[in-house]
Write a structure and sequence with these properties.
Layout (H helix, E strand, L loop, with lengths): L2 H14 L3 H7 L5 H12 L13 H4 L4 H7 L1 E7 L2 E6 L5 H11 L2 E6 L2 H12 L6
Helix pairs in contact: 1-2
Length: 131
């Protein structure tokens, strides 16, 4: 990626109110999977494969569908009063703090490609309507 492409992505991010990562993906300069791998290698976040796990219904029930879709995240499991959340942007501190207040649990973010998160949300919550 060159400086011109980076500036184009920054402009798009500002105009649409999305993250730089999301703008880069929308412009086709990098894939969602590559973003997840970058978060893992550069920042130490675990990269989660949502297609290979079964998320219990009681875990899904902790997070409203609208919040999951709006923040590109999905709860995965609970261990020792800690909720593991797969996120497209594990640096979204506002979403993490909201989840902490919402669930009463400490939040452990992991990364997953936004497409995989979207597919998992569709699979576990249904067709996009609140239930």
């Amino acid at each position: 990626m060159n400086k011109k492409q980076l500036h184009e992505a920054e402009d798009l991010a500002r105009r649409r109110g999305v993250s730089l990562d999301e703008a880069l993906v929308q412009l086709g300069y990098i894939s969602s999977a590559e973003i997840s791998q970058l978060h893992e290698t550069q920042f130490g976040f675990e990269n989660f494969d949502l297609a290979t796990i079964d998320i219990p219904a009681y875990v899904i029930a902790l997070v409203p569908e609208s919040f999951a879709r709006g923040n590109s995240l999905i709860p995965v499991f609970i261990v020792d009063e800690r909720l593991r959340i797969a996120m497209g942007n594990p640096f979204d501190l506002q979403a993490i703090e909201s989840l902490r207040r919402m669930t009463g649990l400490e939040i452990d973010p992991v990364v997953a490609p936004r497409k995989a998160i979207s597919d998992a949300i569709d699979r576990y919550y249904g067709d996009g309507r609140e239930h």
